[in-house]
């Protein structure tokens, strides 16, 4: 029959999904672009991106490591601070996960060619344009309104995410903030009422995030 596969032709290869964790002490846009460029070189490979932006403290790093442990995969980072780099790499070694400093090979090559020292200033590559400030404002808003914080000014959000714990509310808010979208998240906790402000929103998109009971029990 016309269009039928050849008898000896291999079956079509299904897409391969995998987790890629992008840990940055800045906005993470450079890391995100690099990861997508690399993944585009592989056919039928679909990365599930987890972005951890503005990781500049041990507490933030510990939270990222906790999420990484729950969704094993490849870890790419652009952390400049030596102590945080060591803590991240040690945490990944403990979990037996690959941890790659994405910019190190390029920085080393440039350093050898130029014979110049590198800067340890975080975010030194960023241009201070309007888009940058909008993204930073969105990131600060997402962090300040994580897990039900800052409920008194939810009307300033473009998006509000609702869901029980571990439905990826925080990573999604950070991802949206990278695109300049102000996102807040509110947890659904038994016995705890939702913020009254939530029911007064008129022009804000409210999205509920779901998770299967089996997956939630595993976590």
Report on the structure:
- The chain has 219 residues and is α/β, with parallel strands linked by helices.
- It folds into two domains: 16-114, 3-Layer(aba) Sandwich (Rossmann fold), CATH 3.40.50; 130-218, no CATH class.
- It has seven helices and seven strands.
- It has helices at residues 29-39, 58-70, 82-94, 104-114, 130-144, 169-178, 213-218, and strands at 16-23, 45-52, 73-77, 99-101, 159-163, 183-187, 205-208.
- Strands 2-1-3-4 form a four-stranded parallel sheet, sandwiched between helices.
- Helix 2 (58-70) packs parallel to helix 3.
- The longest helix has 15 residues, at 130-144.
- The radius of gyration is 20 Å and the shape is globular.
- The protein starts with 15 loop residues before the first strand and ends with a helix.
Topology:
Blueprint: E1 16-23, H1 29-39, E2 45-52, H2 58-70, E3 73-77, H3 82-94, E4 99-101, H4 104-114, H5 130-144, E5 159-163, H6 169-178, E6 183-187, E7 205-208, H7 213-218
Parallel strand pairs: 1-2, 1-3, 3-4, 5-6, 5-7
DSSP helix fraction: 25-40%
Tell me what the CATH architecture of the largest domain is.
3-Layer(aba) Sandwich
User: Overall mean pLDDT score?
Assistant: 84
Structural class: alpha/beta
Give a quick rundown of the structure:
The chain has 219 residues and is of the alpha/beta class.
Which descriptors would you attach to this protein?
219 residues, 4-stranded parallel beta sheet, 3-stranded parallel beta sheet, 7 helices, 36% helix, 17% strand, globular
């Amino acid at each position: 029959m016309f269009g039928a596969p050849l008898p000896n032709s291999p079956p079509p290869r299904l897409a391969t999904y995998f987790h890629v964790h992008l840990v940055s002490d800045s906005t993470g846009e450079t890391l995100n672009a690099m990861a997508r460029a690399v993944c585009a070189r592989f056919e039928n490979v679909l990365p599930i991106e987890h972005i951890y932006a503005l990781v500049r403290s041990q507490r933030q790093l510990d939270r990222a490591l906790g999420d990484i442990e729950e969704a094993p995969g490849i870890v790419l980072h652009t952390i400049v601070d030596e102590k945080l780099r060591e803590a991240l790499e040690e945490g990944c070694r403990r979990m037996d996960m690959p941890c790659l400093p994405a910019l190190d090979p390029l920085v080393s090559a440039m350093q050898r060619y130029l014979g110049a020292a590198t800067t340890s200033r975080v975010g030194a590559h960023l241009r201070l344009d309007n888009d940058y400030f909008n993204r930073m404002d969105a990131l600060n808003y997402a962090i300040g309104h994580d897990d039900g914080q800052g409920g008194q000014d939810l009307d300033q959000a473009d998006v509000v995410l609702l869901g029980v714990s571990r439905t990826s509310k925080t990573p999604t808010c950070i991802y949206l903030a990278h695109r300049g979208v102000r996102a807040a998240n509110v947890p659904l906790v038994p016995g705890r009422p939702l913020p009254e402000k939530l029911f007064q929103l008129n022009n804000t998109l409210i999205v509920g995030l779901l998770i299967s009971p089996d997956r939630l029990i595993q976590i």
